[in-house]
Amino acid sequence: MGPSQKPNVCRRLSRRALGFFSRDAGVVQRTNLGILRALVCQESTKFKNVWTTHSKSPIAYERGRIYFDNYRCCVSSVASEPRKLYEMPKCSKSEKIEDALLWECPVGEMLPNTSDYKSSLIALTAHNWLLRISATTGKVLEKIYLASYCKFRYLSWDTPQEIIAVKSAQSKGSALAQQAGIQQPVLLYLAVFHVLPFSLIGILEINKKIFGSVTDATLSHGILIVMYSSGLVRLYSFQAITEQFMQQKLDLGCACRWGGTTGTVGEAPFGIPCNIKITDTPPLLFEVSSLENAFQIGGHAKNGVQEMECCSLESDWIYFHPDASGRIIHVGPNQVKVLKLSEVENNSAQHQISEDFVILANREKNKNENLPTVTASGRVVKKSFNLLDDDPEQETFKIVDYEDELDLLSVVAVTQIDAEGKAHLDFHCNEYGTLLKSIPLVESWDVTYSHEVYFDRDLVLHIEQKPSRVFSCYVYQMVCDPGEEEETTNKSCKKDCNNFKF
């Protein structure tokens, strides 16, 4: 039998309408996403800049929603043009939202309220309130007062969509700590909660006497990660710490007596006492040195040390592929390596790391420029200059991401000549690395600015931070373009097609 032909989009839509699929509930969704992927990657499809805006406060994006003014204003990017979903009432500087996470309903759980099944924004305010806000209306659904003894500033997931960690700003533990009667300076606090309904696990203090001069600490998947300026990272079991050092279990909304004061846990002004105080060094699970304290944990294998053959000012970075395939992505300035774990030949008990595919930047083959120089005596000398691999005048990879629903790798490549920088977003097949689509970004790209690029189904969004805290947001959406040939033969068809947006 010869190779089977892939059905075109029209045939796919017809088969879907007629129900020519198996009884698997996920088949229709996968087919829809397959159709969307075909539309995204076809040659005639273009991505058009439909909206540009600027702000003096940070701009955030999460699953089709763009947040402005410290999360006070929410704009939907799903419509043909972005539209405002809600705008919360103006508030004082002390009440502004410092950080936020998007929470979505877990599958297969019975929840107490109908509103709990809709997406929520878990938000942390400047005056230490933890809020749950409706992601569609901006209405505050739940609120918890944390504490007055520290300044909480950051939110992160310990277990995604289940457990959050609220981290305080780091304290130097000087005069303020002494006035509060703290003998060993507390460097920072971590408050840990189950979400929906909110329930407290505990508040943990990281102090200098036990852990030394810590630069940062966080929780991830039940592991307390403590970081040091030397690049050293130490891992501890948070459950073991909780069981050994929790002074008193606290329940939100219940009366509590602590330090001679009685109040309601989670309500102002009492808040939540720090009920996990480590008095002795907990058992160490793991210790490793890591550049910029960034690491992930996985299996061990042959060829475990990977070298990126490049000469650059900025370091390369490496991480596990987000598609949960067990592969590894290693990114340098001029190449993206996708590595795979495979069994060692004749030994199924051992694994080795090998290249799955490599994506190369579009560059001239010879990077060296031989420039002749004439000396005072008239002798001609050739000097060889070796350009850096991340030289801005060469195409350089800046961002690599994965669109899980369309199963595409998105790669941002930038070239900057003089003050003008140009970027394009490339879509690569996640299985083979083949280039499927390239989208030019119309705005100039300055490599000295901070950039974020999101590819989400039919949307591309670029957030840029310029000097003096000026933030810009550029939104691109997929539009149908019949191409130059049809433009000359059927102008009316082109007009109708351009007006149709997916």
Quick summary of this structure?
By secondary structure, the protein is mainly beta. The protein has helices at 9-18, 27-41, 175-179, 208-211, 238-245, 483-489, 491-499; strands at residues 45-55, 60-62, 65-68, 73-76, 83-87, 97-103, 120-125, 129-134, 140-145, 152-159, 163-168, 186-194, 199-207, 216-220, 223-227, 232-237, 255-258, 261-264, 276-277, 286-289, 317-320, 328-331, 335-344, 347-360, 368-374, 380-386, 396-403, 408-417, 420-429, 435-440, 450-456, 459-466, 470-480.
Mean pLDDT: 83
* Continuous helix count: 7
Computed over alpha carbons, the radius of gyration is: 27 Å
**Strand element count:** 33
What fraction of the residues are assigned to beta strands by DSSP? 35-45%
Question: Termini distance?
Answer: 37 Å
Unreliable runs, pLDDT <50, ≥5 residues? 174-178, 484-502
Helix coverage percent: 10-25%
Pairing-aware structural class of the strands and helices?
mainly beta
Strands of the widest sheet, in order across it, are 10-11-12-13-19
CA-based shape: globular
